Amino acid sequence: MTRTIYCVAVTTAALFLGGPVFAQERSTTESAEAEDAEAAADDAEEAPRGAISDIRFPPPLDDVTTKGFELTPWLTIKPYLRQSVYGTTNLFQQSKSGRSTSFVPFVGNTSTKGKQNDVLFATMPGLDIIAAGDDGRLAFGYVPTFLLAAKNGGEIDTVEHRMRLDSSLTLGKLTLTASGSTTWGISISDPQFVGRFHNFSGNGFTSAEYQLTETFGFLHEFTFNAFENFPRGLKATNVASWESDSFLTIQPNTEHDIKFLVGAGFREWHYIDESAVQPDITLGHVMAGIQYEIADLITVNGRIGIEDSSIKKKRGFRATAADPGLDDGLSGLDGLIARGSATWTAIPQWTTLSITGSHRAEATPEAPWRRTTAFGGNISQRLPFSLEAQFSANWQVRQPRRAQDLRVHTYTFNLAWFGVEHVEFAGQMGYTRASSRRNRYEVFHGGISLTFRL
Questions:
Q1: Whether 159 contacts 146, CB under 8 Å
Q2: Pair 283, 314 in one domain
Q3: Which of 385, 369, 398 is nearest to 425 (CA)?
Q4: Are residues 52 and 37 in the same domain?
């Protein structure tokens, strides 16, 4: 914008003064191109940087700063290896009293080991496959995590498998997206459990958006989540949930990219096994939202609505004199739902600040339902010498019906070095505190990771 104004000013002055207009324009253009070339050269001198991630888990899907191996013009494979070593002060998340702080009554409080510190070794060899064309992109990844413990190897040593998918396709006015992940393996087992146990979790998201006119469009979204434990004693917790929402989108003709959403939808959660005692519930809602973007600087995405509920299957759920309202719309469950996020990125992407928040009812094994309110903040700062720092803070309040509230605070600091191509060296420190009316626990962790990307 500044260069355009400058060119117009130079041209106008030359017209009035009778000077060489085209020579002035050419000189200004060449100067701008030289500045762009110099900036590109400065960027090229520094090794590409990936996104900072938790060292205890695999890197994000297709977060590979190198080109990988190009099998065809549209198909690329990107292998990587992450090795992490980190310590923890409270491996099984035990309270200071030695009692279980899982806050789930069916688990029981039979632990005898109490707090255990340990050092864990995680090896994650992964492979991402990316297919990309003019109209779409598909990324698929698989990574196993081999976890070993220095002190509690008999209870901790395990292998976890993870598959991830992310895709998008544009067909004229229609845009389709799909993403998801699934994880299965042997869970870290608290001594209070009899032996280790297998579990499975999966989630998926799809959307279809059709632009009817320049102003109006249609958006449909579908979300699915599932969690399953295989031992008989834990099958009562197996649950699947899904949500379907449809919106009319309104995009006014303004200077900035802004979109309004108005629509309705429903969601359900359903306990999979016949041993479950909590009710299956259906919730219908109306919702409005906004998506707002200013160039590549600020992005805001928010939705708010009102929800009404009904019981699909009661099972062992019963009303009491002190807690009426079983058939009266499930008092305490109906009400406000909201979620939102905002991101600010400073030029030239040296600093990024993001904030998220949500409030909604959820399925939980220790109560008929719970309301969860969560807030999170994240700030990333690019530093000299190919360093990048990140600090994140997350707060969550879980309010189960007929059970004690739980408050969870998590703080994490990461520092990563991207000074050599194909290599990332990172360090991490973190603190988690969870507390209820009767129990609380604290966990400190810290470690390092080395990631190789080809």
A1: yes
A2: yes
A3: 385
A4: no
pTM: 0.80
Both tokens of 148, joined, read: 């070993």
Q: How far is the CA of 378 from the CAs of 85, 349, 352, 353, 437, in angstroms?
A: 24, 15, 8, 6, 29
The b-or-e profile of 156-173 (16+ CB within 10 A means b, else e) is bbbebebebebbbeeeee
Q: How far apart are CA 330 and CA 320, in angstroms?
A: 13
Total of domains in the chain: 2
In this structure, the answer to whether residues 150 and 99 fall within a common structural domain is yes
> What is the CB neighbour count within 10 angstroms for residue 208?
16
Assess contact for 450 and 83: CB atoms under 8 A: yes
* 414-441 tens-digit pLDDT: 999 988 888 999 999 999 998 877 777 8
- How crowded is residue 58: how many other Cβ atoms within 10 Å of its Cβ? 25
Same domain? For 83 and 140 the reply is yes
Q: Which domain holds residue 439?
A: 46-453
Residues 33 and 50 in one domain: no
Give the pair of three-digit tokens for residue 357: 């928040």
pLDDT at 39 (0 to 100) = 43
Give the CATH number of the domain where residue 378 resides.
Answer: 2.40.160
Is the separation of the CB atoms in 367 and 402 below 8 Å?
yes
